[in-house]
Specification:
The chain is 40% helix and 14% strand. By secondary structure, it is α/β, with parallel strands linked by helices.
Amino acid sequence: MLYSTELDKQIKELVIDIYQYKHVAAFGYMHSQNVALNMQYDLQTSEKMIFTRIKFADQIDYISHSHEDTLIIIFSDTGTYFNRVFSRTIPFKNNKSKPKIVMITSADNLNIPYVDKYICYKRRKDYSSHPYALTMIADMICIEYSNYIQEKNI
């Protein structure tokens, strides 16, 4: 149910960004933050260091002070990550120097003006399957990243 050629294509594009950006961060809220932490560890095994924080206030501070040399990956199953803080404000005063933001979500009807790209997936809409789709996507990103750097080093 999770796999699609479109999802595979989007993951490959994200992997190239992860490789090319000087600073990469991954964040989520509650269960989704565990996914970001696991991705941080797994990418570290491929010698790619990314930034993440458990405390939500630290995540928002990092996002608010990031610039165009930063890629921020947001894991948000419902797509409501930014509603918690930026629902009434725009976090970036200058859109030309803002970080690139990619949101991985099952919500397919979002249009947040400062999110640059959405990677959407389909899932069952029940609580018990909630973290597993994001976990699988993070694993797919790490596997694809490992393959990508191996190909670059050949």
